[in-house]
From TrEMBL:
Listed GO MF terms: adenosylhomocysteine nucleosidase activity; methylthioadenosine nucleosidase activity
Gene Ontology terms describing biological process: L-methionine salvage from S-adenosylmethionine; nucleoside metabolic process
Protein name: Nucleoside phosphorylase domain-containing protein
Matches recorded under SUPFAM superfamilies: Purine and uridine phosphorylases
InterPro entries hit by this protein: Nucleoside_phosphorylase_d, Nucleoside_phosphorylase_sf
Domain Nucleoside phosphorylase as annotated: residue spans: 114-326
Organism expressing this protein natively: Williamsia herbipolensis
GO-annotated cellular components: cytosol
Length: 357
């Protein structure tokens, strides 16, 4: 490959081919090539990525282990990674697409044009600070659980952090959430794992859960900061990058609008849901499902593997229905990011120790 961009595109192409192939010699060849590209593109992160691949493709555990053993230098991966750290912050914030990334920068007051900290392997972060807490903001650039795991692997090589938060937008369950509400994932369900039986497929989701203590105090945010929702709404209306809500949207912003904070299950899988099936998926999978997205399980798997505190936070931008529109994407993400920013120093989201602040 002539550049990392070309190599990353090739890796994504192999991944998509792999997902669509049945077990057999051809699939084995594609998986071997995929693993080779991963190890070549970032040997520091390949151990983390392989741990996620083993969970996603349990039938290929032996092949993945052999590829890792033969293609990655045999040395302590953690010792190697620690020597490469270039950025030291309290919290890593991971976004997915550009509109979520821009909303996050705006919510944290990072001005347009502020340069990034460029890391190796074409990886970069933007620094932010609020109320004595330091952040590194990063963007994946593509959707998918494996893509988020790969991004975390790269970032882990060069960023030292105490906790990680994935923040962005999601489809919310109509009737259980409204546009602009924020869902904190008490459970992340990699829901596409199934057992095929004579009577039809049976869901067997993989489950990831952050430490319960991290979400216990969230409901008290409005008690310690009664005007938080009102102030955030005013800030959003003046935010750089906010272009308003389309007249065609059924829910509008006005000075009386207020967001609601939820904790519940979030679905994370390869489907972009826009057929109205989310309420039925809730009935089939978990009674506490409130939202669905495509990256949280890969992110959570890597964080669990490295035993770092983590949370997935999603603003509700649509309901996963055919008439899905996009004008709530920026505000939903902005509100979710502001909630993260303000809840941490107030002790409502204790992903790090803030007693010194």
């Amino acid at each position: 490959m002539n550049s990392f961009d070309d190599q990353h595109s090739h890796i994504r192409a192999l991944l998509h081919a792999l997902d669509g192939m049945a077990a057999g010699p051809a699939r084995t060849m594609v998986l071997e090539q995929f693993l080779h590209e991963i190890c070549v593109s970032n040997p520091f992160a390949s151990t983390l990525i392989a741990s996620v691949l083993k969970a996603i493709y349990p039938n290929d555990v032996t092949l993945i282990a052999e590829a890792l053993a033969t293609r990655v230098p045999q040395q302590g991966s953690h010792a190697t990674i620690m020597t490469e750290k270039q950025v030291d912050v309290d919290i890593l914030l991971l976004t997915v697409k550009e509109n979520e990334f821009l909303a996050c920068l705006s919510a944290f007051g990072v001005a347009v044009g502020v340069p990034s900290v460029t890391l190796a392997h074409d990886c970069e972060v933007w620094r932010a600070e609020h109320s004595g807490v330091s952040y590194a903001i990063a963007i994946i650039g593509d959707d998918g659980n494996v893509e988020s795991a790969i991004a975390m692997g790269k970032l882990w090589s060069f960023v030292q952090f105490k906790a990680a938060i994935m923040v962005g937008m999601a489809a919310g369950v109509r009737g259980k959430t409204k546009l602009g509400d924020v869902v904190f994932g008490s459970t992340i369900l990699a829901y596409e794992f199934q057992r095929m039986t004579e009577t039809g497929p049976k869901y067997q989701p993989k489950v990831y859960s952050p430490a319960g203590r991290l979400l216990q105090r969230l409901p008290t945010l409005t008690q310690v900061s009664p005007d938080w929702s009102k102030n955030t709404t005013y800030d959003l209306l003046e935010a750089v990058g906010f272009e308003g809500i389309a007249d065609s949207e059924e829910e509008q912003l006005d000075p009386e609008w207020r967001t609601k904070i939820h904790t519940g299950a979030i679905l994370a899988g390869g489907k972009l849901i826009e057929d109205g099936s989310l309420p039925q998926m809730r009935d089939d999978l978990h009674a506490r499902v409130l939202a669905a997205e495509m990256e949280g399980a890969g992110f959570a798997a890597v964080c669990d593997n490295e035993r770092v505190p983590w949370v997935v936070v999603r603003g509700v931008a649509d309901y996963g229905e055919p008439q899905r529109r996009k004008s709530w994407q920026f505000p939903a993400t902005f509100i979710a990011c502001r909630l993260v920013r303000d809840a941490i120093p107030l002790g409502r989201l204790p992903v790090i120790d803030t007693s010194h602040l």
